[in-house]
Design a protein that fits this description.
Keywords: Signal. The protein is an alpha+beta fold and 138 residues long.
Amino acid sequence: MKTLTIKKITQLLGIMMITALFSNPIYAQNKDVASSTVTSQDITIKGKVMDENGPLPGVNIVLKGSKTGAVTDVNGEFTFPKSLSSGDVLIFSFLGYDKQEIKIDGKTTYINLLMSNDIIEIMGAPSTDKPYKSKRSN
């Protein structure tokens, strides 16, 4: 008689677990509807970066306040990977040139930028009359 009640209890627990499993709502994994809709403010930015000698390959372009960015190709051209909105700021930087910030307005879709050279001072070691002598003995 005890085996009959244990068997019934086990069946009852099994039915309760299956009922609990299937009665919980199941949510699909989807993107937030607000972030996936494209508004009229989303702007795709393309452009070309040059200096006085021609196109500049390898210029870094970063959205201010984020880690999203792009690099210019061999022809100095780029397409920013993220849609931007009015008021966003792109930072253009390249070694030996002044860093430039461009604010995006509602009409900007193409940026034609001329980078200017940054003045770099090179400090040399002071010359001495006394030659360097190693402390190491051979």
